[in-house]
Amino acid sequence: MWMKIVTITRMASLIVVGLLMAKQVVCAHPHVFIDTRMDAQFSVEGLVGITVEWKFDVMFGSSLIADYDRDKNGSFDSAEIAQIEKKAFSNLKKYNYFTYIFVGNRRHDPETVSDFSAVISGKTVKYVFFIPYECSFEKMEGDIFIGFFDKTNYCDFQFNADKPFSVSAPQDIPVVAKIVKTKNGWVSNRSFEEIKILLKKRP
Questions:
Q1: Is 197 helix (H, G, I), strand (E, B) or coil?
Q2: Per-residue pLDDT band at 5 (split at 50, 70, 90)
Q3: What residues make up the domain containing 8?
Q4: Which residue of 82, 113, 147, 148 sits 20 to 30 Å from the alpha carbon of 181, by its own alpha carbon?
C-alpha cells in the first residue's frame, strides 16, 4: 500500500513539473522582431538558392550599431561587417539560419550561407545573405515552400508588407509565387506564413 502511494506521488510530481515546463514554453515571447524579404533565384536548370534580407526592430538594430559601428560614421565598413558576421551572425548556423526550404515533401535546413552583408538603415540594421540550394527541375516534385522560423520563439519573423518576395528566373521559366498560411505550423517547426512557389507545366 505504501509503495502505491509513493508511486502515485511521484507520478503526480512528474505531471506538475511537465505542466510547469510546458507553461514556460507557451509563455515564451519574442525579443527580436525581424522584417523579412526574399528573392528565389532560378537558372535554366532549376532552383539555385535564395537571397534573404532581414531588417531588425529599432531596439535590436540600434544595439548592433552601438556595438559595431566603431568609428561612429553611420555606416559599416568591411572590417565592421566581418566582426558582425563573426560575432552576431555565424552562430545562427546552429539554428539553420532560421530558414527552411521544402521541395515537395523534402525539407532542407540550410547549413551554409555566402555573401553576408550588414547595412545601417535609418536607426536599425539590415542583414543580407545568400543561401545556396541547387535543385534541378527534373528532381522537383510538387511546390516549393520557403519560411523563416525560430522554434524557441526568441525571434519573430514577419514578411515585409510592401514587397515580401520576388523571383529571379529566365523568362521562359513559368513561375508563380504567393504567401500562404501554414496548416500545421508549430507542430512541424514551420512558420505561420510561407512563400509558396508553383512551377507551371510547360506546354
A1: strand
A2: very low
A3: 1-28
A4: 113
